[in-house]
Amino acid sequence: MEIQNSIFNYATLLKQVKARVALAQKKAIYSANEEMLFMYWDIGKLLCESQKQIGWGNNALEQLANDLKNDYPKVKGFSPRNCRCMIQFHKEYNQELTIWQPVVAKLEMSNCVLPIKQLSWSHNITLIQRVKDLKARYWYMIQCLKSGWSRNFLIEAINQDYYHTYGALANNFDSTLPEIQAKQVKETLKDPYIFDMLTFTDEYNERDVELGLVKHIEKFLLEMLCKPLHKSSNKPC
């Protein structure tokens, strides 16, 4: 009975520690993502202002991207294409945003805050380039956060015009998806660009956690059973 209680207490402790680690990882990821968005918006602003003052063209942008790549060889976010996306990001939101403040989309029913900082760079750029209507963009943003849509699934949803198909059922959206799709969209937001700001390991799936927990409990139980034997014998257990 005492051993069973010890195993239960250990299992509870292990779950609590893992939950705390997972919470810290999520906070670090979202903090890094937010800072990356700030950086890209600022760079987009610098590029826009410089372009107006100097009037440089694509060749200058290519040169800038190459120089940045030489200075930061491990950073993937300074390609010419991504630099153009930074300019687009700044231009899209510069009227209402310093991105430190929320963008308010003036929709039909109410003022809705666009959750820009909560989405990955890839999600944001996809929405800017493919969804011009702010009301529709807001709806897609909420679905990404609510259901954990990947960028590929978001693109497919936009191509299939989910907004007009399911928009009226937004509060009950999960139930409108086929079961196999619902499983596909339940994933944590990941973005390849975030590795420029933070390196993190993939979260274990539920089965991995269970297997790890079983191994720890087995090890703990073995140690508990070996202790009485050590008292009566010098032989290793």
From TrEMBL:
<dbReference type="Pfam" id="PF06250">
    <property type="entry name" value="YhcG_C"/>
</dbReference>
<feature type="domain" description="YhcG PDDEXK nuclease">
    <location>
        <begin position="186"/>
        <end position="224"/>
    </location>
</feature>
<dbReference type="InterPro" id="IPR009362">
    <property type="entry name" value="YhcG_C"/>
</dbReference>
<dbReference type="Pfam" id="PF17761">
    <property type="entry name" value="DUF1016_N"/>
</dbReference>
<protein>
    <submittedName>
        <fullName>DUF1016 domain-containing protein</fullName>
    </submittedName>
</protein>
<dbReference type="InterPro" id="IPR053148">
    <property type="entry name" value="PD-DEXK-like_domain"/>
</dbReference>
<dbReference type="InterPro" id="IPR041527">
    <property type="entry name" value="YhcG_N"/>
</dbReference>
<feature type="domain" description="YhcG N-terminal">
    <location>
        <begin position="17"/>
        <end position="164"/>
    </location>
</feature>
